[in-house]
Specification:
The protein is α+β, with helices and mostly antiparallel strands. It has 16 helices and 37 strands. Helix 3 packs parallel to helix 6 and helix 4 crosses helix 5.
Length: about 625
Amino acid sequence: MDRNRYIDNMDIEIAIDKYINEIDFTKNTEKISSIEAQGRITSKPVFAKKSSPHYNSAAMDGIIVNSEKTKGASEMNPKILKEGEDFLYINTGNPILEGYDSVIMIEDVIELGDGRVQINQSTHPWQYVRNIGEDIVATEMILPTNHKIRALDLGAIISGGVEEVEVYKKPKVGIIPTGSEIVEDITIEESGKITDTNSFMLAGSVIDCGGIPKRYNPIPDEYDKLKSGIDSASKENDLLLIIAGSSAGSKDYTSRIIDELGEKIIHGIAVKPGKPTILGKVNGKPVIGIPGYPVSAYIAFDSFAKPILLRFSGEKERVEYVDAILSKRVYSSLKNKELIRMNIGKVDTKLIATPISGGAGSTTSLVRADGIGEVPRNLEGMESGEIIRVKLLKNIEEIEEKLVSIGSHDLIIDIISDKISLSSAHVGSMGGIISMRKKEAHIAPIHLLDENSGIYNISYVKRYIPNENTVIIKGVQRIQGFIVPKGNPKNIQNFEDLLRDDVVFINRQRGSGTRVLLDYKLKEKNIDAESIKGYDLEYNTHMDIAQGVKSGNADVGLGVYSAAKALGLDFIEVAYEDYDFLIYEKSLEDKRVKKFINIIKSEEFKKQLEQMGGYRLLNTGEIIKVE
């Protein structure tokens, strides 16, 4: 009788690379209902179709009031309010009715009876109110490409009005047990009969890797039946696993059948157990001959089938704890263990954890989080620079590959983060420079206008990071301007209009480049900032500004054109500004930074900016040394 002979004794790493290079990993996609999407991998980014919440709602139990009617209230000068005239009772989540703009917590309300209450403190507009779009803003990216949809993601995509998501199809994996001695009866004790266990183990492993297993009935050691079964099963599946029959016995037919039906690429791996593994293709599909011994079967699957399935489905999963350095102070209660959502990245040899802003109702903060930081009880907080213990929501290898970006916000960061693994925190341009000075970021997006020279960014870097080898990567020029409601009902055209009594403005946070531009323009025109109604009302991103205007919380805000366009608002141009990226010169050799530069110089990036509008590319990707 003919016996097989191994023709290879290949190193396992070489064998894996060689085999994977022979396989066509074209991924098939499908659209599925969002409510059935848990565990699936996105094949394209998921963007919100509506804002959440979609109405202004109370963030606390208490009373709703018009803040104008509470002005002057204090301990020394309490105010009496009458139900139905000055206030209404409200529960958390209830809509804010027209004529009211703030909530007073029930704990701060003194009941006087007869429908009257006393308050000892004034309120400000939108106090304890969840504004429209506080969690999710229509058109913003909720999930990136190649993201495994978790249970916590479902709430975000459903809240964003996304009915269907496009995902990769789960790879179908056929599993054929072979051997005349193999039976499915788990109670069998007959001599010479073996209960099939390997196929169940492999089926479970396929599920763990994001695939769909299909177990076939055991095929006896009969050449024609086995050949027919392999031919048929290879056509029905994306990957075929044939258990046993790969060794050198006289009835080990797998090697010869693969040769006849397709191509045997490797037979024999320099690893024990698992040496008899066969790697081949039939009908253009990968086919693996798995050794029959259970440990060998596991080794063969883990070494060869698992990488193939992960490549098809994008499956990645591992959770663990790490210790990381806090990039800024966090607050907590003495009574409770505090769980804080974190972005994490590795800068040099340090893991850096940056807290993500967002209240308890913010599902997107969990979507963006790399981990959950834990502040123990009996601590009132932790200071910047302290070590925090973090439970990872993503595997450490993925985190360590991230480019850590801390600085100014712009919608182009969403575009870039879909093309490179990016840990992004929006803390404003000055916050980005400070993070770079502390060496807690790889890159900082900044747009800071020098009031004296009219040049962006350079002087600030010299001032705050002196005597260091830093460079500026030229980014984009973007239009800043007034974001106003559709039709511009109050005919706001210039900075002087911000002084009008009927105009409410919303501002960016201190340290942001937009705030610097605003203050520069106000100083240039001798306008007193304190005379602008809403100047002290601060929002953290351009999309926050646009949503604030769209929801009617304000009449105007200063922001970028792309944010106005995304929400269908009007825009009055003020100025183009330079939105650039600060890094240390030595980081130019970092592969992540090189990829980042290639992305912003690419034609695809240029086309996406043209579609968004409000940007122009001028020397994008050019490196300017700060001297």
